[in-house]
Write a structure and sequence with these properties.
The complex is a heterodimer of chains A (about 170) and B (about 280).
Chain A: H1 3-22, E1 28-29, E2 33-34, H2 39-43, H3 51-69, H4 74-93, H5 107-110, H6 112-134, H7 141-166
Chain B: H1 2-10, H2 12-32, H3 45-60, H4 63-84, E1 103-113, E2 119-124, E3 137-139, E4 144-151, E5 156-163, E6 168-172, E7 178-182, E8 190-197, E9 207-210, E10 222-231, E11 238-245, E12 254-260, H5 263-272
Antiparallel strand pairs in B: 1-2, 1-12, 2-5, 3-4, 3-12, 4-5, 6-7, 6-9, 7-8, 8-11, 9-10, 10-11
The chains are: A mainly alpha (about 170), B alpha+beta (about 280).
């Protein structure tokens, strides 16, 4: 990862975080589907990034979000789990030869089918962890599951939309 | 020994994962206990400022609504005041100290709120500098809103009524039967009225107000209207009453904070006699 990439990744994460805090805070489709768009910033980080820095980054990001959303610890816990599972899942879901070392697992790079099968389970696990923490002892299992499923779906659509609109095919990030 | 170190080194990612998760869960637990100290939240100066900037922009568009609501309320209050104006020929009476007004009111602006989680909070742009204390009740012209949780110099964070850990002492206005209001985490425009015994006749459309028993809210602040009455399935001795909230939680701009000046006294009395004090 060179300095140029580092700057562009930081910029993407910063912008996504701002969008999440300013616009997606009280947005929930039908009171059910939440958009965790900031996860896109973690999803597209290249496979060369090790688990430990990834987890630390996810924890800090989740924690910043928590402070703004008054959900102390919930986003942080879910994002850490997300980051812990990401490298394993990326290895499992990648083609037999593995992704090219420098390749980033974003939609323009790996195609729609593979992107969905890579991103959706991770987003679902994230939402599941988040809503389990949020509704601990109050909501039923069905409520948590349906909220998680629809949030993961909604987030997936949001991430696809953002990548189609703003990511250039050639260089990765515009 | 070397083997153990090597093993620990190999599972370092997992160890860090376990540590971070433990940290996060510890934060969740310590933040959710209503009496627990909150270390990081939006009453923090930096975060509060950022949220206020956002509210400045967003609330600009609802200024007209907020103004007209304030004007309406002013008119109503003026009308009430006319009733109390002393006639010039009446004799001043020394009022008994038990009848003294023991509630102080303050106004504040809402800079942030959430309503999509099961533990929802509001951030208010007034803090300890303006005399806000943890435990004060929050309401607006439509009805009840919540209760202050923690305070910094210029900001404070309050539990919203839409927070499953907040209980509010309430009563049905027509029959004076009291119970507790709690949100079940589902619909954001409805709360549950608990502990109303089955023999009580509650009808759809009855008004539910605060009872004044808990020493946080004065008596008679509107909570909402009963929208559904059923027998409680878990405990058939009680009714399961659903109350439609009068407050529109998706549009909060200005709120009032109420402080009971005798709260300390009542609270210590409750502690002395080992009674749990509802919020």
């Amino acid at each position: 990862m060179n300095i140029r990439n580092l700057i562009s990744y930081s910029l993407v994460i910063l912008i996504l975080g701002l969008v999440q805090i300013l616009f997606l805070k009280n947005l929930a489709l039908f009171g059910h589907a939440f958009g965790f768009l900031y996860l896109l910033g973690l999803l597209i980080l290249p496979s060369t990034l090790r688990t430990i820095p990834l987890m630390l980054l996810a924890f800090v990001l989740g924690f910043i979000l928590d402070v703004f959303f008054e959900t102390i610890g919930m986003h942080a816990a879910a994002a850490t789990l997300f980051a812990f599972l990401k490298p394993f899942w990326l290895k499992t879901a990648s083609p037999t030869g593995g992704f090219d070392e420098a390749e980033e697992p974003s939609l323009p790079q790996i195609g729609l089918g593979r992107y969905v099968s890579y991103a959706f389970p991770l987003l679902f696990v994230y939402s599941l962890a988040f809503f389990t923490a949020d509704q601990w002892g109050t909501g039923g299992v069905i409520g948590v599951l349906s909220k998680s499923f629809f949030s993961a779906l909604f987030t997936l659509l949001l991430t696809i939309l953002v990548q189609l609109l703003f990511f250039r095919r050639k260089r990765g990030i515009s | 020994m070397l083997r153990i170190l090597q093993f620990l080194y190999r599972v370092r990612a997992f160890l860090l994962f376990a540590f971070l998760e433990f940290l996060a869960i510890w934060m969740i637990v310590s933040n959710n206990s209503p009496q627990g100290a909150a270390f990081f939240n939006s009453s923090n100066e930096l975060v509060g400022n950022a949220l206020k900037k956002q509210a400045d922009v967003v609330q600009f568009f609802s200024l007209a609504d907020a103004n007209s609501a304030l004007v309406d309320e002013n008119a109503k209050l003026k009308q009430e005041l006319l009733k109390f104006q002393v006639k010039p020929d009446s004799m001043p009476l020394a009022i008994d100290s038990t009848l003294e007004a023991n509630f102080k009111l303050k106004g504040a602006r809402v800079v942030a709120y959430s309503l999509r989680f099961s533990q929802n909070y509001l951030t208010l742009h007034k803090g300890s500098k303006d005399g806000i204390k943890p435990g004060m009740g929050v309401f607006n012209s439509q009805g009840i809103v919540g209760r202050v949780k923690s305070v910094s110099d210029n900001y404070s964070v309050a539990f919203s009524v839409l927070n499953t850990s907040l209980l509010i002492s309430a009563k049905i206005k027509s029959s004076e039967v009291f119970g507790s209001v709690q949100w079940d985490g589902g619909n954001t425009s409805e709360v549950q009225l608990l502990y109303v015994p089955r023999h009580v006749k509650a009808t759809k459309g009855d008004t539910v107000i605060t009872s004044g028993f808990n020493a946080v809210f004065p008596e008679g602040i509107l909570i909402g209207q009963i929208s559904k009455v059923e027998v409680n399935k878990k405990d058939p001795n009680y009714l399961a009453i659903t109350v439609k909230l009068s407050t529109d939680f998706s549009k909060l701009t200005y709120v009032y904070l109420v402080e009971n000046t005798q709260y300390q006294e009542i609270d210590s009395l409750y502690r002395q006699s080992d009674l749990p004090n509802e919020y």
